Amino acid sequence: MDFTFTEEQQAAVEAAKAVFADIAPDSVPSPALTPGAVADEFDRPLWGSLAGSDLLSLVLAEEHGGAGLDTIALCLVLREAAKVLARVPLLEHCATAMAVQAHGSPELIAALLPGAGAGTLVLTVAAHGRTGHDPAELAVTARRDGAEWTLDGVQTSVPWAHSADWIAVPAHRGDGEAVLALVPRSAGGLTLADQYSTSGERLAELTLDGVRVPTTHLIEAPGAWDRLRQLLATGTCALALGLGESVLTMTSQYTGKREQFGFPVATFQAVAVQAADRYIDLRAMEVTLWQAAWRLDAATDGAGGPLPSSGDVAVAKIWASEGVRRVVQTAQHLHGGFGADTDYPLHRFHAWAKQLELQLGPAAAHEEALGDLLAAHPLA
Fold this sequence. Notes:
Layout: H1 7-20, H2 44-52, H3 71-83, H4 90-103, H5 106-118, E1 123-125, E2 140-145, E3 148-159, E4 166-172, E5 178-184, E6 190-196, E7 202-214, E8 218-219, H6 224-257, E9 259-260, E10 263-264, H7 269-300, H8 309-335, H9 346-360, H10 363-376
Parallel strand pairs: 1-4
Antiparallel strand pairs: 2-3, 3-7, 4-5, 5-8, 6-7, 9-10
């Protein structure tokens, strides 16, 4: 087996590194010192650079102006984005575009994908349900009314909704089947209320009161929402990995220069052992991430496995949720009081790590889901 990344995937990484090279994590006010959002808008200049480098069209097929790459390539770029805390809706935008490309009507594809690839249209997705704990598709009802569908319900913590042009909204039809509606932000009956993330970003509570969408803007393909949900989770694991790697590098540099009793603290066994444990966490996060990303693409290609791809995603979420928390906690501990200094970037990474952990959910819940899958799909 060959576990190396393809030339195209490696080229995507190099392009991402070039775009993110000059991005500073402290380009906006600190979330620790800002009562509301750190900014009303995401980083539009960076978004333009991503579009100019063809990274927004990375996962789109060539007929839609893209490079036709896969989930692994997207996760590689997300990993680089998280290393600098890039404030762009890269995950939500690309994941939604992939869902439209795979399952959307010709009219929807024509309306969204050219602009999405060029960066002139911004896409996001409501994936957290009414409370953040219940399934997102149960928070909104979709009722057919002639050639249109009517949507009613509430979705919480929708990222970048105030800046997005279109929002993908999962809903249920009452027969147990989930659908995915693409709703323009300007749609009648749709309202946004401000919410704020732990990292200081502006989120939105999305209320749909009789929002009408044409049938061509609704994706009814079985499994479409489930795959998008898994893709969002896997991309979040990639963000957690990139953030953790950046934090461990920061910690290594600090402990290599900070001296106690005439020696760098990095040479002390207690410090070295803790750093080594966190390195192991990151390697486990990495290998489970690539397994989940590969399984998502393999499932699309018709390749099967002993468990559904959701099992691999659950394992990646377990490691990412626990791992990113342990990495930033150890970093704070080894930095001492310096880690809480708002003039030093570590506290920003800590806030972002906590937000990612909240998005991923508790490891115990994923372990329970994995147990259910194992019970339903015996490996013997």
